[in-house]
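Task 17 of the worksheet. Students: predict the tertiary structure of the chain below and write it out as structure tokens. Keep your answer in the requested format; marks are given for formatting as well as content.
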Amino acid sequence: MRYVKYYGPVLALLLLGLAFRPAAPLPKVVIGYVGGYRGLVDVSTINAAQLTHINYAFVNIDKGRAWLTNERTDTVNFRKLNTLKTINPSLKILISIGGWAWSENFSDAVLTEAGRRLFAHTAVDIVRKYKLDGVDIDWEYPGIPGEEGNVYRPEDKQNFTLMFKAIRASLDTLQRQTGKKYLLTTAVGGSKSCVDHTEMDKAQQYLDYVNIMTYDYKTEGSTTAGHHTNLYAATGDAGGSSADRSIRLYIEAGVPASKIVMGIAFYGRAWQMKDAENNGLNRKPVKGVRGGGYTQIKDSLLTSGGYVRYWDDSAKAPYLFHPLKNIFLTYDDDNSVQHKCAYVKQQELAGVMFWEYSSDPKGYLLHCINKELR
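Model answer:
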């Protein structure tokens, strides 16, 4: 009895420690984009244990410099995001520069060698100042139009590569000062045009990961309604866009599979259709309507009784159709994510990334990703 009394508390503490031991690190990267452009981020809602990287979106460009347009809230967000490392010490936090709305100044900023040095220095200075882990570039898009009014020119093709060279050199200088490894990544479009207007074989040598935006294949302005984040070509559209096609394009362009990160959409896209023909798939829409985030789709649209879920086995992608309102909605769900994660493992890719964390606040898809990638 005395023996049990003495060792009982020790044994209890040992078992408690085992019960709350952190999960083993993920064998693949799981990169979540977190939108700080809206203002303060509620970091208490972020499941840091299920992420390997957070890409903070977005940092702007002003007069050739990486610029915190929302400095008052950005700096608070940086500090709070860094506290997540108490939960997951291996978590990496990067600034993501650009995005759809803030890419208009890339071409001018990196046009000259002096400009590239200035841009690289100011980007890395944000990393240094706020004790972050690297830089992600989301230039939409070099050499081709993105948002209306964006500056783009033929020289972007070479300057895209030289920009990464300059940032890598600046990060390496910081690494020599701190002894810490810093990351350089990029988000790239999934189209052949995006590949053709870059030198990915040369650019990849400076990059840790190439995050392919394997979503938005269909947008509000598309002439047909269809899958926006399908793994393979859709039924009835064998030559259409898909994640598989995009990934193969980048591998053919010289990016190692081990650096490629597949995109997953945490949001849906939807269209008002003229009628119920083919449940909207591959039919001409009347107009785009709000799609919503996955938590809303799962908890509201799928339980309201109005929407019917369909599965396109060729595309490995779900879609919804509302037969009374004639609304078609394309999205990722647990089933499509399972297929995507299996593909990542089969093709020996680096992992997955997703846009954007707040679209699935209950973490349905993030939990699925972690389950499938372990």
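Marker's comment: The chain is about 35% helix and 20% strand. The CA atoms of residues 107 and 152 lie 6 Å apart.
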